[in-house]
Every structure is written in structure tokens, then in C-alpha cells.
Amino acid sequence: MSIFVAIIGLAFLILIHEAGHFFSALAVGMRPRKFYIGFPPPLVRVKRGGIEYGIGTIPLGGYVKIPGMHRPAARDLDYRLQHAITNAPALVKPVEAVKRPLARADYEQASVAIDDLELALRAANKPTEVLTDVRESLAPDAYWRQRAWKKVLVIFAGPGTNLLFAIVVFAILFMIGGGKATSAVDDVLPDTPAARMGVEAGDRILAIDGQPIREAADIPRFISRSEGNGVTLLVRRSGRTATLGPARPEKTDGVYRLGFVLRGQGLAAPAATKESVLLTARVSRDIAASLGSLVHAGGRDEISSPVGIVQGSSAAADQGLKNYLWVLGLISLSLALLNLLPLLPLDGGHIFFSLLEAVRGRAVAREVYERVSAVGIALVLMLFFIGLTNDVGRIGGG
Fold it and tell me: Could you confirm whether 96 is annotated as catalytic?
């Protein structure tokens, strides 16, 4: 069940990412052509206001089709109409009538000529859907025709939505008890010294090895100072005191721990929002630093694929809703930062080229887009392969 919850959580993060693109495109007059829950092909679909809404066969995330992500090129028709021309040579002339203005960047003339080409396809009993992408790329609301700020806004809205979601989730968690720690136990992790010595959620820790607890920070400090030797807890439970232990703390991430989580004191909304923003900034800095360490073997060992993400969030779900939400917020933040890398076809690559074209005052050649996209896709696939290899090794105990 926890794996199902983890998959749903990841799908939700992808869906809100695509929703960010969709609603921002609508807001600036760049009308998307499709919005799917899941990925095509569609199970069901309906068209409203020129937009096709549907539920995709692949039940993960979402899909948005924004028209004309790239300037149309003459070879787009060669790719789509090669088979039709072979069977109907009469189509050569109307096809060339569209390709010639495309080659000289006369998009208005190409828009007129493509209507004649559609009529010729109908006369030859050939499907006209092959012209859809080219026609949409010639439309006034095509992405490539827009001003730079509109393009940047629409593309940034995807990772921006993931970033905003992370900040909101963190703020809510700080408000409901993720703030300043108290001396009360909120949760006990299974199969840990704390679980074996009988610590329970709700226990208030009064002393450790006879040393009274004056502030919550004393608790991890006293436990860590034991250096792995047995410690005894004095706790208050249901109005009575009880002595638990001794038990030997175990070293985790370089620190000795017993395996319980202290209950936090909820923060007011302004303070919670401030802490959320600060946490997001710190985690973003750490993620950026980890991306910079990918050239080292140690850095590559930290990469995870969707398999590892699901496995990690599934484990968090087993530990309770709050732990799961912390992990979900961190995954959302990671998705935002990954998508902002200046690589095509990632969102950051589209933002970089939009800004580059605005500075240059002219378009980047289509061939450059395609070559950079090929490199970007290769790098993304390489990261995925490394992450998947790491995840398989972790699952298999390697």
C-alpha cells in the first residue's frame, strides 16, 4: 500500500508541474492544445474551447501540448509526408508550395499555402492530421512567436509550481509541529534501541543517565556523548515516571542515536513561512552542490532514479504522514531544481535559449536546438541509468 501511495505522490508532483505550464500559458494567451492526466494515448478525451482534455493510458503525471515550441522548418513536411508523396506524386507541388516560404522564413505565405496542401491531401484520400503540428507552429499563439518574458514565464511555471508546493508543504509542517523541538517523543522508529527499550510516543524525557533535561537540545547531546555505551532514560508517561533501559545507541550518519523523533512545537504562520523559505534555500544549495560533485564517484553514488524515489518515499510513508510529507516536499524541490538545469529538453534549457535569443535579437538556428537537445537527452539518460544502477544495487544489497 505504501508503494502505491509513493507512486501516486510522484505522479501528483508531475501533474502539478504540467498544470503550472498549462495555466500560465492560458494566462498569457498561448493556448495549449492538449492537457492530459497521465500520458497519451488517451483512454477518454473531450474537446472544450479548442483544448483537448483527456485521461491518458499511462497513469503517471500529466501532459501539456503547447503549440509551436520550435520554428517550423521545410524538413518537417518531408518527415511527415514522405509516405503520402510516394503513393500520391501529385502532392509534390502543394508540398513544395509550403516548403519554399518556410525555407525563406515567410510564415504568412506558408500559412496560406498549407490550406491548399490540406485540400490536396483530402483529394488524395490522405489523412490531414499529419499537418497538425506544422499548422500549430504557424499559429499566432505559437510558443516561438511570443516575447521572451512570456516564454520564460510559461516554462518557469512548471518547476516554479514544484518549488511553491515544497515551500507550502514545509510551512504547513512547521505550523503543525515541525518547529522548535520539545522534550516529548513524537515517534519511535521500528527496530531501533529506543523501540527495544520500550520508549513510546508521548513519553516526556526528564533525564538521561541521571542528568536532568533542561532544554530539548540536551537530549541528542547527552545521547551522542555516550559514544555507544548504554544509556538510561527517565520518562514521564500518563502522569507517572518510568525508567527505561539501559540501551546502547547506534551510530547513524556519524552520530549516536536511540531512534526516536522529538515532537516539535508548532510555529505561527509568518514564522513557519520564514523557516520554510530558509529550509528551501539551504536544501537547494545542498542539491546544487551535489550536482557539482557528479564528476566524482562519491557524488554519482547519491543519484536516484524514479525507482529509488518511490522506494524512499514508500519507506517514509511507512513511518507516518508527516515523514511522508517531508520527503514529498523534498522530492518536489529536487524536481524543480533538476528541471531548471540549462539543458534541452529540460525547462532550464528552454529558458536559457529564450533569454539568449532576446539578448542576440534574433533566433537560434533550428539545427543548434536539435544538436543541443541530443546532448541534453544523452546526459539525462546517463543520469537516469546511473540512478537506476544505484537503486538496483541498494535493493539487492550491493
Answer: no
Q: What pLDDT is recorded for position 397?
A: 41
Distance from C-alpha of 206 to C-alpha of 191, rounded to nearest angstrom: 23
Mean pLDDT of 382-389: 64
CATH architecture of 184-265: Roll (2.30)
Catalytic residue (choose from 18, 52, 136, 275): 18
pLDDT tens digits along 303-355: 554 555 555 555 655 556 777 888 889 889 988 988 998 988 889 999 999 99
